[in-house]
Specification:
This is Zinc-ribbon domain-containing protein. This protein is of the alpha+beta class. Helix content is 37%, strand content 13%. A four-stranded mixed beta sheet has the order 7-8-10-9, with helices on one face. A hairpin with a 2-residue loop joins strand 12 and strand 13. 31% of the residues are buried.
């Protein structure tokens, strides 16, 4: 994520802001520019001096994206991916849905920065609330149709699920990045003719998926996966290994862009023989994977150290082994060298 600032007063802004806390001007994100813009007294975007119109979900406080005034669409590129939203006449659903949309907009920002396609009818999202008398909604994917249980936007419920499933890390944005990764397997691997390369690293994805997941959940917690996989769930099936690594790759580039925007320099002492130093002054969206990995290790050490100072769990409870780094490198390659880019 870039560091954002108000064009009127220079105040630092967050991606989700709708008004500047310092000067009071209204704000809106312009997806074509990838930046927040303040709006002047005449309603013109100060970023480009042009009139804009709000996404239809701005009125529901579920979006802060704006479109060109003459755009034929009523919804922004993120909101128009919605296939189904929960019943908003139920007051308890509205704040949870807003959190869903916030996470999805962050996802779309990163996909745009990576120039990954997400337009068209294939990729779509359904955010579903549990209904009385019906089985709980299952988060999952089906050929680009991504379903996220609305309950995942409830912090207490999501933490309960994380604990029950013995997961070190579970976030709403992480769900979005993981599930969209399954669709990008179709786009970046299967349709691009990279299946053999994929299998050399991740394994044979043609093995029975349902049986593999059933076996995974039947096994008691263990550490057999460590070293070859980024998480225990990644060891369940090659498709899940890919999706976990894809989500992880998005975590990395987004976090590194934010750290770079702040001009962070980190000097963690790794052992008595030396210091690993890195100055984060590069774009992870244009860098090679080796540069990304070299910067990521000291940044995560710093992030975890800061969390421990505040008495909270490690922000980054993962270890990047050599096999995992190779898988991430493959994802970096297929993202940046796609047939549709002529590379």
């Amino acid at each position: 994520m870039r560091l954002l600032a108000c064009q009127n007063c220079g105040n630092l802004l967050h991606f989700e802001n709708t008004a500047c806390e310092k000067c009071g001007l209204s704000l809106g994100f312009l997806p074509e520019a990838g930046r927040l813009s303040a709006f002047d007294a005449d309603g013109l975007a100060m970023l480009d001096g042009k009139p804009k119109k709000p996404c239809a979900n701005v009125a529901k406080e579920a979006c802060n994206w704006f479109l060109p005034e003459d755009d034929a669409e009523d919804y922004c590129p993120a909101c128009r991916l919605n296939s189904m939203v929960p019943d908003l006449s139920m007051p308890e659903n509205l704040p949870l849905w807003r959190r869903m949309e916030m996470a999805k907009r962050r996802l779309i920002y990163t996909l745009d920065r990576l120039r990954l396609p997400h337009e068209g009818p294939e990729l779509r999202f359904s955010f579903l609330a549990d209904l009385d008398g019906e089985p709980p909604t299952m988060t999952g994917h089906d050929e680009g149709h991504i379903t996220i249980a609305l309950a995942e936007a409830d912090d207490a419920e999501r933490e309960a699920r994380r604990t029950r499933l013995n997961e070190p890390f579970r976030t709403l944005l992480g769900h979005m990045r993981h599930e969209v990764g399954h669709w990008y397997f179709l786009v970046l691997v299967e349709r691009a003719g990279r299946t053999d390369d994929f299998r050399a690293l991740f394994g044979d994805e043609s093995q029975d998926y349902a049986a593999a997941l059933q076996a995974h959940y039947a096994r008691p917690p263990n550490n057999d996966w460590r070293g070859d996989y980024i998480s225990a769930y990644a060891a369940a099936h090659p498709h899940e290994d890919w999706a976990e690594c894809f989500a992880h790759y998005l975590h990395m580039v987004d976090s590194l862009e934010m750290a770079t925007s702040f001009g962070m320099t980190i000097n963690p002492v790794l052992d008595r023989d030396g210091v690993l130093e890195t100055e984060l002054d590069f774009s992870p969206y244009r860098a090679g994977m080796e540069e990304i990995l070299n910067a990521w290790t000291p940044l995560t050490i710093a992030m975890n150290a800061m969390n421990r100072c505040m008495g909270t769990p490690d922000l980054y409870p993962f270890v990047l082994s050599a096999p995992v780094a190779r898988k991430l490198g493959f994802i970096h390659e297929v993202v940046h060298h796609r047939p549709d880019q002529g590379q």
